[in-house]
Amino acid sequence: MLKDDCASELRVHLANSLPLPSNVNRPRIDLIVFVINLHSKYSLQKVEEFLQHVDSSFFLGKVCFLVTGG
After folding, report:
1. Has UniProt tagged this entry with the keyword Electron transport (predicted)?
2. What span, in angstroms and rounded, lies between the C-alpha atoms of 51 and 59?
3. Continuous segment of H or E residues that includes residue 10
4. How far apart are the C-alpha atoms of 64 and 2, rounded to whole Å?
5. What is the pTM of this model?
6. 47 near 34, Cβ under 8 Å?
């Protein structure tokens, strides 16, 4: 395996709902991943609710949808 040192750092924050609590120490958010479970009838409804809390500027390359259970 090729190993290369770099200055990048990956941080993952998991949340069960939006909006996130206000926190000045929270790092910048670069990507939001919404997980939609096709086996849950409430999953898509919840994602639709949470989308209302996301600024429209995030929808250009900063939001993706991961669909599971297909």
Report:
1. no
2. 10
3. none
4. 28
5. 0.76
6. yes
CA distance 21 to 18: 8
Per-residue pLDDT of the chain (70 residues; tens, 9 = 90+): 667 777 888 888 899 888 988 888 888 889 999 999 999 989 999 999 999 999 888 888 899 999 999 7
Q: Are 36 and 65 in contact (CB under 8 A)?
A: yes
**Does residue 17 contact residue 54 with C-beta atoms inside 8 Å?**
no
In one-letter notation, the amino acid at residue 30 is D
Which residue from 27, 45, 28 is spatially nearest to 36, judged by alpha carbons? 45
Helix residue spans in 7-55 (DSSP H): 43-51
Closest CA to 51 of 27, 32, 29: 32
In this structure, are residues 54 and 70 in contact, taking their beta carbons and an 8 Å threshold? no
